[in-house]
Amino acid sequence: MNISTVFIQAYLSALLSQPPSPYAGPAQFKALKQALKQVEETRRADGTFEKHGLVNVLDAVPDAYIDIKYSDTLNFTATDVYGPYCACHLLPVVTDKLRVADSLLKKENPELRFVFYDCTRPVSVQERMWASLRHISLNERGRYLSNPKNHSVHNYGAAVDIALADTSGNVLDMGTTFDHFGPEAYPYMEKTLLMQGKLTKEQVNNRLLLRKVMLGAGFRQQPFEWWHYNAMGRPEAKIRYNVLY
Q1: Which has the closest alpha carbon to 96: 141, 158, 152?
Q2: What H or E segment, with its residue span, contains residue 228?
Q3: Please, which residues bridge with residue 103 across strands?
Q4: Is the N or the C terminus of the chain less surrounded, counting Cβ atoms within 10 Å?
Q5: Is 15 exposed, middle or buried (0-12, 13-18, 19+ CB in 10 A)?
């Protein structure tokens, strides 16, 4: 559990131990109780990942932004597949690489930060995501999501979906939204898309900066998603680490 969660939990606990303010009605007090319950559920969810030896990315990159897209309904599944979990946990070897990437990023531009969209993903979540794309052919589906039968590098805590943002939390323009299914998101298509006017120079440069610092830290770029980076290949992850179900 990161320090911000600890602070929020302590603050709410202290607040709820006091008599309700005469200026706060039953609805406000009920909302506070619900918030405390949410924090406790999040703490338990975090513990599940930590039991598998995973660590919170904020321990390595404390100024990063966390925006777990699958803890909301604004994703390609249109459902919240994580429930109360809204954090980023990874293998220690991965967070070590992210420390290096963050150092490289700060050298390029000290005003930029990482924003994490997804990190370790249990196989159970992978299965739900895979099923949500049943309307897409298997070959096409495999470009954007690993078949849960084969596992994803995400399932081992060795992959991240990531972007860049400024110090105010504004995400840089990367040309497409996260989880865009189409050629506009393909890294190898960027030069062609730039010439066709489908991507701007700024958008491509933002991707290139992200790629430069991530590759410089030892990550590998996924060929169909500008946001997806693996810390190792799937065969290596299968040999060295346990999959999270």
Answers
A1: 158
A2: strand 228-230
A3: none
A4: C
A5: middle
Closest-CA residue to 68 (of 79, 82, 48, 56): 82
Q: What is the pLDDT of residues 12-71, one digit of tens each?
A: 555 555 565 555 566 555 655 555 555 555 555 667 788 889 999 999 999 999 999 999
pLDDT in tens, 212-233: 999 999 999 999 999 999 999 9
Helix (H, G, I), strand (E, B) or coil at 57: helix
- 50 burial (CB, 10 Å; 0-12 / 13-18 / 19+) is middle
55-56 and 112-118: which strand pairing?
unpaired
The pair of three-digit structure tokens given for residue 56, joined into one six-digit string: 């919170």
Alpha carbons 23 and 144: distance in angstroms, whole number: 51
Specify the fold of 52-240. Muramoyl-pentapeptide Carboxypeptidase; domain 2 (3.30.1380)
Q: What is the DSSP letter of 171?
A: B
* CA distances for 100 relative to 8, 86, 145, 206, angstroms: 29, 24, 27, 19
Rounded to two decimals, the pTM is 0.82
Containing 41, the helix (H) or strand (E) segment is helix 26-50
How many H-runs (helices) and E-runs (strands) does the chain carry? 8, 7
Contacts by residues 77-80 (CB-CB < 8 Å, ≥ 24 positions apart): 77/128, 77/129, 77/132, 78/132, 79/128, 79/132
